[in-house]
Design a protein that fits this description.
The chain has 98 residues and is α+β, with helices and mostly antiparallel strands. Helices cover 19% and strands 35% of the residues. α1 packs antiparallel against α2. It is elongated, with a radius of gyration of 16 Å. The termini are far apart.
Length: 98
């Protein structure tokens, strides 16, 4: 849902609302402890960005719907950058383990 909300907002107001806009989605595993998944959504090429004047449902969903996550939204003039850091289990999951 969080990625869907980011994409919807990009289509309405951000990078996807113009022919030249784009989004870069990058993720990395940050070694721990605690291990974390860091996901970065970075828009560019859209209209100039201004921070929202009020907190709406979409912003609340983005910032509060992932349990244990730290979410930072930066409304930079060139585009939104949203960084999400999620805690991961201490050990990688091994499929096929009996």
């Amino acid at each position: 849902l969080v990625l869907h909300e980011l994409a919807t907002n990009a289509a309405k107001y951000g990078a996807f609302s113009t022919a030249t806009g784009s989004v870069r989605l990058n993720w990395t595993i940050v070694p721990g402890p605690p291990r974390q998944l860091r996901l970065v959504w970075q828009e560019q090429g859209g209209p100039p960005v201004t921070p929202p004047t009020r907190r709406g449902f979409g912003g609340t969903l983005i910032e509060n719907s992932l349990a244990g996550a730290v979410v930072r939204r930066e409304f930079l003039p060139d585009g939104l950058v949203c960084t999400i850091e999620l805690p991961l289990p201490a050990e990688p999951f091994e499929s096929g383990a009996a």
